[in-house]
Amino acid sequence: MNTKRLIVKALKILSIKTELESFDFINEEIKKGVQFRGTNLWILIFAILVASVGLNMNSTAVIIGAMLISPLMGPINGVGYSIATYNFPLLRESLRNFGYAIGISLITSTLYFILTPISTAQSELLARTSPTIYDVLIALFGGFAGIVAISSRNKGNVIPGVAIATALMPPLCTAGYGLATMQFKFFYGAFYLFTINSVFIAIASMLISQILKFPIRDIIDASKKKRINQIISVIIALVFIPSIYFGYQLIQKERFSENADKYIANISNYEGNFLLKSNVDSDKRIINLIYAGKNLTEEQKERIKEKALSFNLKQSKIIIEQGLSFQEVDNKSTETLRLQKELYEISNLLEAKTEELDSIKNLAQTGNALLNELRKFYPEIKSLSYANTLEYNDTTNLPKTIKLVILKAKDSPIQNNDKEKINQWVEARLKEQNVRVIYE
Q1: What is the pLDDT of residues 222-250, one digit of tens each?
Q2: Which residues pair with 152 in a beta bridge?
């Protein structure tokens, strides 16, 4: 019973019926937004110009400003609302005005990019050419927020927020850039993104209109309703399915870039060579590496390429180039050679220190393993010390490297016959003859 009461209470909290405007007021508001003449038309043209300048100058703030003043949401909401209420005159007017808005926007942005002296594709432009499944979700949830705000008396600042989130203006401007520069890849990608946003905002508007049970103002037979629903389903499929593919491609690119970064970090210093520069092309799955140091042999290059298999880069193409070789001395100044020599020595020193750190880590792990294994047979062993050390004698000046193991018993000392067994076991375990075992 408590659960049922909680559900009822939650539904009351989520309900917006008490906050809705009258159905007549909502109908009039949507009709006003559909109209594209006079003031709305000029606002659209100016918004397109502002967005085009923002994309051209790579200014996020300017692009956001253009989205705030754009009136494009009106006819899209009109399409969704008119389908939900089977208001075909309003649907025709919404589609006609939306078509006018698209045409005017493309003409305005194309003319701007033809006339502007700066034609380089900036990052803000490029970001509007690769739509994915995530754009579908943004448009859908943004559309939900938009139609709910229109229907409610408590609108707040939702409508401007939806205009920014769903980003209708920038893709249209990018499509105009593609037409102006004859780069149709830009046009198709951007216009598809605009189509995704428009269709799923309209679908969101339609769904909320049905959920809130906006009244159907005309009589319509069941067969016509069924046909309309079929057409909507086909449109959704045509727009939605390609976005899944693009979303999958985006995830694959992100994974490749992440794995490539880990791989590059792993081979940045290799056998006296250090990585000068790297470039990752996630579209073509190419990793370009430029090394400085000794001349890399073909065998070394193959080993570097083989390391990529450990980072899930089986399908990648790895290109290795020699940027600077310390063995090349033709036509080089003394200062250049000196700097190269110093870089080479630093590289070797770093490599040696890395190996030294690794050996220290291995010592700790080996010592711990020896103690745990010995305790299984000799529980009286309290502690174990393990290290590499130098042994000097009077017959030569060169010391001998030996492995030193110091064992300490708990209460009673280790027996002599056990010591002999331990000595033999330690030598066999370490695979080393030069071992000294000391008992305390």
Answers
A1: 777 777 778 877 877 777 777 777 667 76
A2: 20
Note the helical H segments in 184-221.
Answer: 184-211
Query: Rounded to an integer, what distance in angstroms lies between the CA atom of residue 132 and that of residue 253?
Result: 13
Domains and CATH numbers, the chain: 18-220 (1.20.1080), 359-439 (3.30.300.30)
Distance CA 166, CA 199 (A): 11
Distance CA 268, CA 35 (A): 61
Q: What is the pLDDT of residues 190-225, one digit of tens each?
A: 888 888 888 888 888 888 888 888 887 776 777 777
CA distance linking residue 256 with residue 244, whole number of Å: 18
Asked if 88 and 82 touch (Cβ cutoff 8 Å), the reply is: yes
Residues across the chain: 440
Burial (0-12, 13-18, 19+ Cβ within 10 Å), 76: buried
Task: Let me know: does 139 contact 77? Beta carbons within 8 Å.
Answer: no
Q: What are phi and psi of 276, to 5 degrees?
A: -80, -45
Give the C-alpha separation, 203 to 406, whole Å: 77
Asked if 132 contacts 243 with a C-beta cutoff of 8 angstroms, the reply is yes
DSSP string, 296-311: PPHHHHHHHHHHGGGG
DSSP string, 64-108: HHHHHH--THHHHHHHHHHHHTT-HHHHHHHHHHHHHHHHHHHHH
Between CA 38 and CA 30 the distance in angstroms is 17
What angle (nearest 5°) sits at the alpha carbon of residue 307, between those of residues 303 and 312? 150
